[in-house]
Every structure is written in structure tokens, then in C-alpha cells.
User: Fold this.
Amino acid sequence: MTQANIESARETLLDVFGFPAFRGGQEAVVERVIAGRSTAAIFATGAGKSLCYQLPALHLPYLTLVVSPLLALMQDQLTFLQRHGVAAASLDSTQDRDTAREIMERARSGELKILMVSVERLKNERFRHFLRQVAISLLVIDEAHCISEWGHNFRPDYLKLPDYQREFGIPQALLLTATATPAVIDDMRAKFAIAEEDVVTTGFYRDNLELLVQPVESERRLPALVDWLVPQQQPGREAPTIVYVTLQQTAESVAGALASRGLSARAYHAGLDSETRDRIQQGFMDGEIPCIVATIAFGMGIDKGDIRNVIHYDLPKSIENYSQEIGRAGRDGKPSRCLMLAGRDGLRVLENFVYGDTPEREGIRHVLSEIADAGRQPTRQWPVLLNTLSRDSNVRLLPLKTLLVRLEMHGVIVPRFAYLAEYRLRYLDETANLVARFEGERADFVRLLVDNIAIAKTWGTVDFERLHRAGEAAGLDASRARVIAALEYFQDKGWVVLEGKRMTDVYEVRQPQFDIDALTDRLLAESQAREQAEIDRLQAMLDLFESDTCLTRRLAAYFGDTRFEHDDAPADRSRGQTVQTARSCGHSVQAAQGCGQPVQAARGCGHCSVCHGHVARLPGAPPLPELTDADFTRQAGPFIERHREQLGTSPGAQRIAHFLCGLSMPVFTPLKARQLNGFGVHEQRPYPEVRAWIEGRIAHPG
Assistant:
């Protein structure tokens, strides 16, 4: 990139965005992107990674396409861009047809510089057809760690993004994330052929964040939270605070308890309607609600600079989640505190969520049997309605999507196209007027549509098979493709309202001859390996909180930020603190004095629990009574009986364990399992313990 281009980018930074200078890492990314190089930007939460695509988009000749996992993220960035006069828009499921059509026309004409979409929209064949008509300079992937199976938030649809880049002929990609370990970065880089020198990281050290771990038993946690918050929530000088919890009911109970003690707090979670969530979020942003007690549904896309406290009332889901959540504190650079009220009691719930995502062997085999059947057909096409396949196989949607992607990676199936299985329409004009707008063969075709789409009151369902037969009888082309094209044209003209539903993905079976049982075992083993990796991730998080070395240092090292290893590390030199650690043996100073291993001095941050002299040992979960045969009969018996009555078979140990631990399965819906008293009765027990207990009862029913 020439010096002139650098100066031009700096002018844009000031003239358009109003910033006098780039922040750490931004200029390096912007230079690479404007120079036409695919780049990965690994920036800490709040470090300004969005500008890394927003500014280059104004210097690139064609459209910048941004793929983002959440509507909230898109809307927040879109508001920022529109405020600064940048021609940007997003496509999402809340928009009506006219709005979406207008946005796509602006993109076609070159008026738009930035278009934001969800990754799911790229599965839509009609949308992909639109993108093939648009010149695109840059593909931006927000939350890019989702592409890696080694990441903390793997999303199967992200694995297809490199293929989409090639399909649309996009010359370069920019990957953005705040939470990527070295293994995840390598995975991301390999998938998009990004050179090692084009990975830019800002590091994860934040010298204004005080990381505190306070071990607290579960029964003492609420009083500890109140004691800690009260001094900071005095009327007129309340410190903006987020309290993170795991469950929706915990959010409600904690917020209610804080309010009963005179603190202004509101619960925020996915169980609230969108209007209520928006109102609470805006109240927090405006300073009217100083304290939010929230599940992880809150925070994505939140850009509030003066959050002074982030408190974890429950254990976070991973180190990556913890880093992302505490990263919302102190974005204005002022001192802020991140408190972990830690205990091991919440670990069981988090671990059980992980076990809940592993499908049954029978479910995997059901999917493979369908594929084998489709592979024996002449076309080798396998149409998939995800919700239907999830119900029939008893595999939850996310694990099912992962399973399908794995089958793609194994070369068994390949996606070909997707279509809406059902259409219905409502006329906005008289049908006679509609026919009269056309002449000759086209008029005959429109008349055939009108005569063969039966209207019940105001809506009519399109029967493609009936139309095809009528077309053959009349000597007209009434193929599905032509019918849909005509109806979409009618809608564009405002003559009808058209609605589609039941998205169907069509795969081609590439390997019709495969050993169903052998592949079932292989896929199950892969699922179990991922299950163990997630359990190990939880243990790594506990190890962090119980660390006897500087928490800030250890957190940075987890993400590959080794700057603490050097004398010029960004430590808080004003405090001049060091932490004595026995890094050669991993023991604390006290333990190392007796182990005979050398003790090194390592610089600490000076603003974490360990640097303050407090090494945490998390209290265990309270003991639970031993399980008995009588418990099994009382708690599992009604579910087993209903399963036999309605499905004609006895449930296996995995299915019963899911029921007792309160973990959802598609089969539970028709069984109305949640209405039975035993559902979730053991959600606080370790899933492996419950399953082993069940297996003992099934094997030895007496």
C-alpha cells in the first residue's frame, strides 16, 4: 500500500468517522485490506475491530458483504454507519418484501457500499443468485471463530463460507473476532488461505480491568453480591453494572432480590418478549437502569463505554465467554472491576448442557438410513426439511446441522440447492385484470395459474403438481421454476402477496454405497470427542479461576498473547508489583518452597486477585443424597411407561438421563415429557452419574 493510500485512509478516518487517529492494530488491518490482501483481525472486545471493514469499504471499488451471526450486532453497526453517512444496509427476516427488494436493487446499482446478512441467508438459492449478479470486493466474517470446530461457539453453517467466497468470486476476506486461541486462529487462517503475516492481533491485556475471583458457597452468593454492590449503587451515583447468570429463572430471582434491597436492577433474558428486552436494554444504555441481571442473551452488540462492573454470579460457559463478557467493562479506558463470585455448584448445569448436545446412536443411524435410501434412487437427491428430520431422528437442530456438515466433510453428501416447499398467495387485484395484462401464450399461462390455485376465503395454496398436470394437458410450460418466477414477478408488481415456508435443502448423495453401522460409530465417536473437548474447556476455565499465577497474564496466554514474557510487557508499572511463581513445576510459591524446584520472578498485572495476594479455591457443590431404586421407580417410571404406551418401545439410558436431567430432545414434545414430575429433577446432578445409575437399574431391574 502506498503512502498516498495510507494518507487517504487517515483522511477518511477523520472526515467520515471523526476519529483523529487509528487505535492499536486498526491501521495495520486497514492497510492490508485496501491493498487487496485477505486478513484476520484478532482484537480484544471493545478494541474497534468493526472499523477495520467499515473504512476500507469506502476505498474498495465494489460492495463489501458482511456476514454476522446476530441481528443485534448488525443493527448496532448499521446505526453507527448510517449516522456517519455511509451507504449501508442489512437484510433480515423482519423486513417485508418491498424493503428487501429495495435494498437488493441499491446493491445491484452500486449505491450500497456495505451489505450485512446472516450466515443462514446464504443458504437461500434465490439470494445466492442475486449475489452472483453483484460485484463484491470484500467478504467480512464477523465472529469468525464460529468457523472453527475448536472454537467455543462453532456454527456449522460457517464452514461453508470459504466455498461461498469462491462461488461469488470474492477476491479477499476479512475475518474478525475477539476470542480466538492460537489453534482457532490457525484453523481460520487455513480455511481462507490467509498468510501468517496477515494475522493482526491487539493482545488481550486491559490495564484498566481489575480481575477478581471471590470464592463463595451457593447459599452465600446472593448476600455477597448485595454486600459488594450496595456501596456502588448509592442514589445519584450508581455504577453501570452487568450481572451475568446462567438460567432465566436465576436472572429473575436475583434481579428481584436486588430490587427488594433497594437496588435498581432489571432481569434480561431470551424469555422476555422483544419489546421488553429492547426497552430494558435502552434503559441501561441511557443510564436509567444502572444494573442488569442477564443471561448471555445480553451484551452482543452493546457498546456502552462506562460499564464499571461486570459480575459473574454463575460460572461462564468457557474462558472465551468470560473474556468476551468482561471485555464489555471499561471501554472508556477508566478503571473497572470484573468480579467472579465463584463456586463449583454451577459446573454441573454447564456440563449437562454439553452432554445434552450429543445425539443418540439410533438418531445418527436414522439419518444415515435416509441417505442410503436416497442414494438408491436414480437422481440420488435427498430433500431435507430440518425440523422434520430432527423430529424423526430425535436429534436436536444444532447437533443435526453439525452432523450434516460432517457428512459433507466425509464426502457422503453435497448440498445442491434449497427451495421453499410451500407457497400461498393472496390477490391484491381482480384475477381478470391480472390475466388481461398479458397476451398470447403468457395470458394462457396466467389464466392456468388463476384457474388452478384454489382460493379459500382470501388465501390460496400453490399445488405445483396440479399446475404441472394442467400445463401438460394444455400444452403449456407450467414447471415449478416458471410458476415461482411468475408469482414473484406478480408480487414485485404489487398484484399479489406471496408467502413461502418450509425451507427444503436438497443434497446429492455422493457415496450411495457405505457401511451404515461403521459410519454411525465413526460419527458418534466424533460427537463424543467434541463432547469431551467441551468438558475439558470447562475444566480449563476452573483452572484459570484457581490460578496461583497472575490471572491477567494467564488469560492473555490462553489466547496466545505472550507479551507478558518480555520486560517491555504492558504491566501496570506504577504499582511495580511482581508475582512469585514456580513456573517450572506449576506450584504456588508456598508449595514450591518445599518441592525443590527453582522459583522465578514473573511480572504480574498488579490488578487481579492473585496479584493482591488472594489465590482462589472454589467451594464444591453441596452434597446430594444417594440415589435409590425407589427414586428410579418414582422419577423415571412414569416417563418409561408413557414412552412404551405411545412409541411401543422402552427408552434407553441416554434418553431417560436426558429426561431426568432436564435436557431437551425432540421426542419429548409429542410425549409431553415436560409435564411429568420427573422432568429435570436431577438437573443439579452430574449427567454421567445419573446415566450410570440408570444403566444399573436397566441392567438389574430387580
Notes: The two ends are 77 Å apart (CA to CA).
